[in-house]
Amino acid sequence: MTVAATPAPSPATTGGESGVRLARSRRNAELSLLLLAMVLVAAYGATVEANLLDTVTPDFWMPAAALGAVFLGLHLVIRFLAPFADPALLPAVALLNGLGVGFLRRIDLGEAAPVDRESLAIFAGIGGRQLAWTLASVILAAGLLAIMRDHRSVSRYAYTLGLAGIVLVMLPAVLPSSISEINGAKLWIRIGGFSIQPGEFAKLALLVFFAYYLVRKREVLSLASRRFLGIDFPRGRDLGPVVVVWLISLLVLVFEKDLGTSLLYFGMFVVTLYIATERVSWLLIGLVLFFGGAYLAYVLGEMVGGPFANFYLRAEIWLDPFADPTDKGYQLVQGLLALGTGGLFGAGPGGGQPEILPEVQNDFIFAGIGEEIGLFGLSALLVVYLLIVERGLRAALAVRDSFGKLLAGGLAFTLGLQVFVIVGGISKLIPLTGQTTPFLSAGGSSLMANWLLIAVLLRVSDGARRPVTGGGGKAARPAGGPPEQLHGAPTEVIKP
Amino acid sequence: MNAPLRRVGVVVMVLFGLLFANLNWIQAYKADEYRTSDYNGRVQVAEYERKRGNIEAGGTALATSKETSGKLKFQRTYPGGAKYAQVLGYKPVNLADTGIERVENDFLAGTSDQLIGDRFKDMFTGDQTGGGNVLLTLSKRAQDVAYDQMRNNQQGVKKGAAIAIDPRTGAVQALVSMPSFDPNPLASHDTNEAAAAYNKLEQDPDGPLKNRALGETLPPGSTFKIVVAAAALENGISKSTQIPAGSSYTPPTSGEPIRNAHPSICPEPQVTLLDAVTESCNTGFAQLGVRLGANTIKEKARQFGFEQDDLTVGQLGEDGLPTAASRTGTIQNADGGDDPAALAQSSIGQRDVRMTPLQGAMIAGAVANGGSQMRPYLVRQLLAPDRTTSYYTAKPRELRQPVSGQVAGDLRDMMVSVVQKGTGEKAAINGYTVGGKTGTAQSAPDRPDHGWFIGFALDKNGTPVSAVCVVLEQAGSGGSAEAARIGGQIMRAAIADPGGR
């Protein structure tokens, strides 16, 4: 692995020599990268206007400036409260978020009557709402950074968060459809004109719980096992609580008719389990369970329908979207046609017709953007996502405590998996399951939850890069020493 | 825990690698298919962003684009309605385009390589320069007359075709196929309306969407005698040579006698070749054909353009409207020798001989033009959107030389005789020398005969100015005379209005 290959001191050996490490905060690098990202966002906005309005309005820079201001605020918070946080995370996320806002504003412009286009207010339409959500989310992320001075403190609330996660996941399922159902998926809570997707937050809460629980149990899970077919399988009773959490969330998700989220939880769970136990058997079990489950759902969907009919339909569309290109396969077909029309370089921001795509502001935003920025632009976006994920994993590698490793690793992987699931879905690599594209798609819940995720990653990376000597307090704790609340769970099992 | 974390990093890299590979695969192998997919509305909207160029003839716009307030910015309209439909074709939103609209689509839409300079300029000025204009060879007057006369023909025939070309250049002066259709509903932005209009036309048993002038073959009847006469003139027979005739002729192997259209035609045992053409003597030509042999007849027909199936009428040397090949059919027996019965019938343009109206006009044109057959074309000029630069100007090309100047001269004299004192009298034009040949072709035993006329007009100096072919399907008795009359009218209009040239 290339990105994380930088020598991150192994926790077992860090103690003595970490004081010698050059402690550089790299905050100025973060600031200049952030400015570069905002210049790109402003340039994107200007290009959109040039293409759609045939002129660039004097106010074209305003969305970029508003975003820039709030990102700058977050940068200052990081500078003072998490000075050693990874400098690439914030600019990368800011770039994606800014382009998302720019693209959503571009959709507003495209849908507005030509006479109204030049006077479109910056907080108007879905683009404006997304801008407002961004401001709120970033402030919330800054707040989390302020409250959570050490990521280990979260583990204190692990059981509370686990319970909250389950409640959040279950809530839409038990609420009446009139409140919770949008486009056939019961994932929402709608109050008035306001809707939130509690599952997005449940993801974070559950991961904290998984991380805490697995750190406590990892030794038992990895050592006390039964050998079967040459693979070590853990004892049932050790797995109890985790499997229960997982089953509940999955069962509920079947009733919420959203396969994408279900897949996401599953992947998140299996990977944290694997990281904690270092047992390949978990990956194998997970893959078998997943592919077996998918196939079973496909067969069941064909034979009995019911809760599986949705998945069967999606699989059929995936196998041949052009079988019913004007109805069932319409969305996927139009997404593919958008990608094909975009070609290598795209039609240019504002030069395409993303309005044709159903749900272009949500699930299909990647295809909509793809039409306008082409293969090269999309590749660049994917690289930015990859950068964020690998930076998160790098923080996990570098951080000294097991809880932080599991937390950061799980969060980073979940983010990457979500990008894979949705981008793979719209490009017909895998069956399409409704997911938001992190930081791009319209939607406050997703944006807010993902910014909180980034705040946690920032905090973990700060902890990882913070020089040990002179730090005092918890940070100076000998590497690998478990925080008290982790009840003596061993930090590291050094494998030969 | 670092080892599994690193492996998770690799897994993420692999997942993103898959995404990346898949996106590349889409662009490399699927993009063209997706871009041009029928379900892709994007390219279409983009196509309608730019004003499509005009198709014009003689200074009149026959197809033009008007700005609308809808999502598709320009509406294609055809002011001439049904009159030019078979030439122009139509440019629908969802359906397939046809005619000149299809052939010259790139230039009209402005996406042609020739117009790359305009596109480049647009990139900097931000304007949308329209597409280029296509100027046709059609003579507005000739087309008007052809369309009106065909529609109101005195036989009350519903199906037929007329085409007039300039014998010296091959430029098409008029092209009408009956029944015609109004292309405007097909170009409607309401795709349901367009589809409904299309389905109605498609299901019409009279086939209004067909271009009969270029694409339909019918037995040519006596007009084919010009081909046989040309073969005879090249094989030692002259205009004044006496050839066997008679009121009836039975080929050696067949009991089915060939008779003349009327008992008064060539009942004498021998007539001159000139008289045989003038009176359209069936028995004379049946025996002439048998004497010349099937290979000679077939070869002559091929030299006049029969059997060519790749001729297109548009720009010269470029894509154009497709044409059907005229055929002489099977004249041989199974053992390869001549079948005298088939040969006798083929020599008077029956049996399996089939000809397009275009082919008829090209035969008449070659005769009028001293034996030189010009390649027919419809596109006179391609004009830049600003109407100043010309990207193409037709340079007439000889297609082939079916007969020598001498033979052409003899054929011309005989055809002139047909109009002066024979079956084609109604084609005569005051002040011009008109030649022609009528044809009455049996279509099926229980159906009325087709009426044909092929002909040409020479001015006082003997310069050919127009060649025409008119066919009235199942016109019955008097059909060929009516075809001759219409042919004369079309040529007169073409002479009066050389505007298309």
What composes the largest sheet of chain A? 2 strands, antiparallel
The total count of strands of chain A amounts to 6
Mean pLDDT of chain A, as a whole number?
81
Portion of residues within helices of chain A: 55-70%
**Uncertain segments of chain B:** none
The CA-CA distance between the termini of chain B, in Å, is: 86 Å
Structural category of chain A: mainly alpha
Let me know the largest β-sheet of chain B. Answer: 6 strands, mixed
Walk me through the topology.
The complex is a heterodimer of chains A (496) and B (501).
Chain A: H1 11-17, H2 27-53, H3 62-81, H4 89-111, H5 125-147, H6 158-174, H7 177-180, E1 181-182, E2 185-186, E3 189-191, E4 194-196, H8 198-223, E5 225-228, E6 231-234, H9 236-256, H10 259-277, H11 280-303, H12 309-319, H13 330-342, H14 365-398, H15 402-426, H16 444-465
Antiparallel strand pairs in A: 1-2, 3-4, 5-6
Chain B: H1 2-35, H2 41-47, E1 55-57, E2 60-67, E3 74-77, H3 85-88, H4 99-103, H5 105-109, H6 116-125, E4 133-136, H7 140-151, E5 160-165, E6 172-178, H8 191-203, H9 212-215, H10 225-233, E7 242-244, E8 248-249, E9 258-259, E10 270-272, H11 273-279, H12 282-292, H13 294-304, E11 312-314, E12 320-322, H14 340-347, H15 357-368, E13 373-374, E14 379-383, E15 390-393, E16 398-400, H16 405-421, E17 433-441, E18 450-458, E19 464-472, H17 479-496
Parallel strand pairs in B: 1-4
Antiparallel strand pairs in B: 1-2, 2-3, 4-14, 5-6, 5-19, 7-10, 8-9, 11-12, 13-16, 14-15, 17-18, 18-19
Helix pairs in contact in B: 7-17, 10-12, 10-13, 10-16, 11-16, 12-14
Structural account:
The complex is a heterodimer of chains A (496) and B (501). Chain A has 496 residues and is mostly helical. Chain A folds into two domains: 1-147 and 329-496, no CATH class; 155-319. Chain A is 64% helix and 4% strand. Chain A is built from 16 helices and six strands. In chain A, the strands form three sheets. In chain A, strands 1-2 form a two-stranded antiparallel sheet. In chain A, strands 3-4 form a two-stranded antiparallel ribbon. Chain A has a two-stranded antiparallel ribbon with strand order 5-6. In chain A, helix 15 (402-426) packs antiparallel against helix 16. The two termini of chain A are 20 Å apart. With 501 residues, chain B is an alpha+beta fold. Chain B has helices spanning 2-35, 41-47, 85-88, 99-103, 105-109, 116-125, 140-151, 191-203, 212-215, 225-233, 273-279, 282-292, 294-304, 340-347, 357-368, 405-421, 479-496, and strands at 55-57, 60-67, 74-77, 133-136, 160-165, 172-178, 242-244, 248-249, 258-259, 270-272, 312-314, 320-322, 373-374, 379-383, 390-393, 398-400, 433-441, 450-458, 464-472. In chain B, the strands form six sheets. Chain B has a six-stranded mixed beta sheet with strand order 3-2-1-4-14-15, with no helix packed on it. Chain B has a five-stranded antiparallel beta sheet with strand order 6-5-19-18-17, with helices on both faces. In chain B, strand 11 (312-314) and strand 12 form a beta hairpin. Classes of the chains: A mainly alpha (496), B alpha+beta (501). At the A-B interface, helix 10, helix 13, helix 14 and helix 15 of A face helix 1 and helix 2 of B.
